[in-house]
Amino acid sequence: MAEYHIRLNCLVLDKRKIVQDKAEGIVVIPDLPAQPWYPLFKKLIHGEAVPLGPHPNLVSSPFRKEHPPSERPYPGCREIIGKAFLRKGILNSALETTLSSISEATSKQYNTTYKLWWNYCGENNVSLFDGTPSQVMCFLQDLFSNHGYRYGTLNSHRSALSLILPEGLGSDPALKRFMRGVSRLKPAKPRYNSTWDPKPVLNYLEGLSTSNNLKLLSQKLVTLLALITEGRLQTISLIRISNMSIDDEKIQIFISDPIKTPSSLGGQPCLHMLLSVKPHGTASKQTISRWVKETLKASGIDTEKFLPHSTRHASSSAAQRLGVSLEVICRTAGWSQQTQTFAKFYSRPLSKDTELAEAVLGLASK
């Protein structure tokens, strides 16, 4: 009897030999439908595949060492979501298109959740795809108690699990009450309690000589765009010159690429920046973030305290102080007035770290 070593990642090559030799046998493989070799393997099966339950000695490594399910390597976010979709009735032929609904940013975010959930299920004998709301609560409680996660992080984990677990997880009364308890014990907190005044930055940019210096001109432009549009730096990195409309009164810039908040696609100003040094490729979000940081630092803003993203806080808070309506502020930034995102996280008073010290020192002059 011939012996075959099937390499799942090389199944296209191995399949030819198996078919040519008309080989038959019983093979145990991991149930990973989203893997590229999975459809090929299904074509080799005669009859129906038999699903096997967990067993500590079911899967072995190439060296015949025990490989319990709890110690199996994490398959990846895409594999987990793909299998969950198939279990929910999505046909294999439509799987790739359905998986395309998950953005790269969401996939990276959910990947953290699924790694934690994978390990938790292996250690506590919980079904990866059939976990109950009570088991999810225990999982979240573990993260809450042992890792100090706050409401926002736990709510993100809950949303990720809702995608792969049975329907109704998000509406479960007990889980909703649990999350309400988390929000009281460790509520989501804004990053900043105060913000900086855009005036010194604008004064610096006004007096900045940018002639014959493409980098300074680029830094000036992206900082001004960040301030006047209240846009994310990611959005500023996504402009396409072909999507610009210029007339005598204004410039309209439309975003065709997916961004973090789809509802804010309408008329978001942004910029397609080119690097000022060779090879002069498109500037990434990280490059634009660095440009803004360098500009803020040169303007006297404490960049150890305030990150480049704080331009959204500074510009929206300044607009509010100048009497711009809440409707206009939220529409420009892409926020919903109903969610109170601006009031909770972005509307901040000016930073006055030295106010008390200056008042005390001022006594000497009286």
Automatic annotation (TrEMBL):
Keyword DNA-binding: yes
Superkingdom, natural source: Eukaryota
A GO biological-process term: DNA integration
InterPro entries in the record: DNA_brk_join_enz (IPR011010), Integrase-like_cat_sf (IPR013762), Integrase_recombinase_N (IPR010998)
GO MF annotations in UniProt: DNA binding
Coiled-coil region: none
Annotated keywords: DNA recombination, DNA-binding
PANTHER family: CORE-BINDING (CB) DOMAIN-CONTAINING PROTEIN, PHAGE_INTEGRASE DOMAIN-CONTAINING PROTEIN
Name this polypeptide is given: Tyr recombinase domain-containing protein
Species: Exocentrus adspersus
